[in-house]
Amino acid sequence: MNTLVNTGSFRGINIYDGLDILNKYNLKTLEFNLRPIMDENVNQFDLKDYFQTNDFSICVAAGGWCDFFANEKYFRSRFYLIEKQIELAELFGTKKIRLFFGQIHPKYYDERVFERLIKNVGYLITKYSNTIFLFENHDDLSTNIEFLESFFATINNSRFMLNFDPVNFERFGVDSKKAFLRLYSYIGHMHVKGFDGKDISAYTDSILNFDEFYKKLEEKNDINISLEYESSKDIITNLIKDYYKMVNDIKRSCK
């Protein structure tokens, strides 16, 4: 079991300033969010040099610029964005990339939309044979347990797994423990952040207990657990506190 820091926490902060903080505390095993490159035009090769110079290890690339619910013509016209994200993952030395399904309200979801989704995702199967795709339960339809079960059972490919985010389930009124039990066999990665009963909080303030998740996930080989700090509290101090609490909770739970 590997513990990572998700650099998406540094939204609104210069990425190098954020990385310097992690470097100072020797937190060098990352889920690197691709936003600085995709949205802010940060040079990918300069970042690679920074990672190599400072001995960072990128275990997962956090992408998400995609919509697999779109009609095939539109999906193919935007596929270059997915290709770029996969190329960036390879550049940083990882085969694992987090993606989103796309956004669709459940009321617009039907069998035809599901068939379109499966066909679009199937394009990844034929084009990329070594990449591991981690689809996250993020919002709307992707927090529906039945939908996720149907998706992963239909794809039926070990390179397509769930990026399990308990808080994203809870925020939409879905019992994360129920989701965990039903989707366990598909989980390939986990995001950790706090939940105060209504919204995201610091992990140190969370009312949601992760111990059962940690203990069960220890059974999986090569599982990554990422701290995804999204609290409004000061990031510099509290991200570090949250990370070490997560690590200690994992150690305690897995004794």
Produce a short descriptive summary.
The chain has 255 residues and is of the alpha/beta class.
Describe the structure.
The structure is a single chain. This protein is α/β, with parallel strands linked by helices. It has helices at 15-24, 35-38, 44-53, 72-77, 79-91, 111-127, 145-155, 166-171, 176-183, 211-217, 235-253, and strands spanning 2-6, 29-33, 57-62, 96-99, 132-136, 160-164, 187-192, 194-195, 200-201, 224-227. The strands form 2 sheets. An 8-stranded parallel β-barrel has the order 1-2-3-4-5-6-7-10. It has a two-stranded antiparallel ribbon with strand order 8-9. The two termini are 13 Å apart. The mean pLDDT is 95.
Fold blueprint:
Elements: E1 2-6, H1 15-24, E2 29-33, H2 35-38, H3 44-53, E3 57-62, H4 72-77, H5 79-91, E4 96-99, H6 111-127, E5 132-136, H7 145-155, E6 160-164, H8 166-171, H9 176-183, E7 187-192, E8 194-195, E9 200-201, H10 211-217, E10 224-227, H11 235-253
Parallel strand pairs: 1-2, 1-10, 2-3, 3-4, 4-5, 5-6, 6-7, 7-10
Antiparallel strand pairs: 8-9
Low-confidence stretches: none
**Major sheet: order of its strands?**
1-2-3-4-5-6-7-10
Mean of pLDDT: 95
List the secondary-structure elements in sequence, H or E.
EHEHHEHHEHEHEHHEEEHEH
> What's the number of extended β-strand segments?
10
Helix content: 40-55%
- The N- to C-terminal Cα distance equals 13 Å
As a percent range, the share of strand residues is: 15-25%
Number of helical runs? Answer: 11
The largest pleated sheet is described as:
8 strands, parallel, barrel
Structural class assignment:
alpha/beta
CA radius of gyration is 18 Å
Q: Overall 3D geometry?
A: globular
